[in-house]
Amino acid sequence: KPGRSACEVTKHVDSCRRCDPDLEKNRKKLSDCVLGFAHGTTDGKGGEFYVVIDPIDNATDPKPETLCHAVT
């Protein structure tokens, strides 16, 4: 919106997301900003990224590079 700075914090996660100019280099930092039910979880924080490049999912026979394959 006009008049807002790029780093204006309107939600808690904004302090980690919008205000970090190096977020592209360290997306796992977002796990430090978790609130609520997932607060304190760390599984996967040190793991590799899974890149979804195929938007077509088949839940019964998921193929690699799809979201369904990532969560099975």
TrEMBL record:
Gene3D superfamilies: Single-stranded right-handed beta-helix, Pectin lyase-like. GO terms for molecular function: pectate lyase activity. Keywords: Signal. SUPFAM superfamilies: Pectin lyase-like (SSF51126). PANTHER family: PECTATE LYASE, PECTATE LYASE 18-RELATED. Belongs to the polysaccharide lyase 1 family. This is Uncharacterized protein. It comes from Gossypium gossypioides.
